[in-house]
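Researcher: Quick test of sequence recovery. Tokens follow.
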């Protein structure tokens, strides 16, 4: 009689043994933050600033993995295809998610992701060589208007915030630039420093060290107001481009269908990391102040950018070339 109950008993014991494993608290292994651009750019700096504190908070290693190319599409596609378990995450601006799919065929859309939360907001700047021919924004705008298509302007890749801001600059300033796409801000800055291009539209985060050293000069900020980190640098509004405003929002996303409790755990860890005093100081020092949000607030930001991009696409300005 007892022997006949052994299989049932064994199954019950196996189920009891497996239950704790199934109910284990997230996370149980390292987490990867995929940055879809080259090292040294704005997203990379933000990710690497937050990764160590996220690791402490979550109790697991947090690794930054740069997967550059196609304006962020390579990294975004990789995360969209990943298991929706919270272990492979994307650090991105809205543009790679909602602008790029309007410009070229991508394997993902906005609904391919589960938003986790904002990480930072960053002003955009127009930077030129410190010893180059352009001493101020008026000289840049004058050259671009008098020599249409001859002033070369680097940006971080098709569909990026930098690219869209450059298009907005052309439209608002009634000028034509020779746009040169790169696989992130760092290689664009390298070519600017080497004299291969005339200017770069960039996040202050990745340009700050060069501006502080004098090897680059910020001739204008693209935000509504002057930036506290660059109090002597005028806005494009001051240069005569009425109502101009462009900034970069950076946030964290997981693959679609990631369990809500995992999203909540990641959002809580992100908020805690952004509240860390050392992280706050670091992000402010590099020109990318931290900003937390709920998953829904981050999604609302993404949808707002998606609507704006749709309007821009109708003008024919959004092209992958």
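Model:
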């Amino acid at each position: 009689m007892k022997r006949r109950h052994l299989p049932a008993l064994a199954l019950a014991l196996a189920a009891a043994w497996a239950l704790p494993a199934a109910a284990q608290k997230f996370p149980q292994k390292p987490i990867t933050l995929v940055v879809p651009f080259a090292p040294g750019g704005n997203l990379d700096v933000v990710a690497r600033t937050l990764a160590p504190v996220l690791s402490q908070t979550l109790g697991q290693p947090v690794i930054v993995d740069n997967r550059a190319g196609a304006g962020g599409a390579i990294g975004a596609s990789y995360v969209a295809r990943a298991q929706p378990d919270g272990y492979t995450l994307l650090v991105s601006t809205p543009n790679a998610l909602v602008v790029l799919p309007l410009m070229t065929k991508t394997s993902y859309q906005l609904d391919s992701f589960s938003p986790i939360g904002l990480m930072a907001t960053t002003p955009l700047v127009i930077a030129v060589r410190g010893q180059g021919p352009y001493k101020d924004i008026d000289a840049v705008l004058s050259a671009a208007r008098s020599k249409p298509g001859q002033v070369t302007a680097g940006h971080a890749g098709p569909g990026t915030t930098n690219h869209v801001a450059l298009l907005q600059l052309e439209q608002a300033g009634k000028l034509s630039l020779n746009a040169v796409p790169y696989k992130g801000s760092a290689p664009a800055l390298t070519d600017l420093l080497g004299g291969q291009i005339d200017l770069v539209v960039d996040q202050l985060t990745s340009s700050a060290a060069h501006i502080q050293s004098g090897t680059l000069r910020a001739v204008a900020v693209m935000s509504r107001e002057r930036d506290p980190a660059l109090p002597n640098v005028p806005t494009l509004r001051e240069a005569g481009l009425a109502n101009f405003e462009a900034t970069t929002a950076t946030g964290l996303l997981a693959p679609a269908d990631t369990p809500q409790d995992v999203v909540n755990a990641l959002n809580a860890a992100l908020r805690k990391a952004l509240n860390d005093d050392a992280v706050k100081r670091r992000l402010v020092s590099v020109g990318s102040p931290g900003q937390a949000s709920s998953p829904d607030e981050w999604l609302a930001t993404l949808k707002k950018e998606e609507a704006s991009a749709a309007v821009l696409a109708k003008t024919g300005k959004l092209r992958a070339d």
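The domain at 31-122+248-314 is CATH 3.40.190.150 (D-Maltodextrin-Binding Protein; domain 2).
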